[in-house]
Structures are given as C-alpha cells and as structure tokens.
Amino acid sequence: MSQNTTIVTTPDTWTLLTDSDVISLSFQVVQAPSKVFFKGTVGANPPSTLAGSFVYKAEETGEYAIRLADMFPGIAATRLYAWSHDAADITVSHA
Questions:
Q1: 14 contacts 46 by C-beta, under 8 angstroms
Q2: Rounded to an integer, what distance in angstroms lies between the CA atom of residue 68 and that of residue 23?
Q3: pTM, 2 dp
Q4: pLDDT in tens, the chain (95 residues)
Q5: Distance (Å, rounded) from C-alpha 78 to C-alpha 60?
C-alpha cells in the first residue's frame, strides 16, 4: 500500500516505516533529539539488534528514492524500521 506520511517512532522500540513490502522509498528525519538507526528486514518481523543498522544524526538527514537492495545489499530487504532512544518524526514516502 502506498503512503506519504510522517511517522513518530516509539522510544527504544523498532518502528515499522513501510506498511507493505517495498522496492524503494524516500525518508527524512524531520525531528529527533538523538540519533536514529535504520535497518532493513525481509518481511514484517522487527529486527532483534542494532547490528547492521545505518545511523542518521538528528534532523534533516535521509535518503531520496533509494532502493532497499542498494541500501542493504547483503539481504533481500523489503521493509524498513527505525529505532531511537527518543521519539523521532520521520517522513516516509513509497509506492
């Protein structure tokens, strides 16, 4: 299912950013008091660790129209999750 929205993450919890399997997406950290970790998964099961995550510093960082296969070439990622110690506002857009 397509979406173009801002998602507020739950502190210290993996938050699903994609509401279906996707090939590519755009995302931007709009507001976050601390670093945000991003990790791709195969299917909707959340990650169990921060290992293998990409870290984005707070605010105004993200990716534009990036393929999950390019971001996580070691797995066939279909979903994207975010994790932060604090609530973070992340704008997400995907088909």
A1: yes
A2: 6
A3: 0.94
A4: 899 999 999 999 999 999 999 999 999 999 998 999 999 999 999 999 999 999 998 776 889 999 999 999 999 999 999 999 999 999 999 99
A5: 24
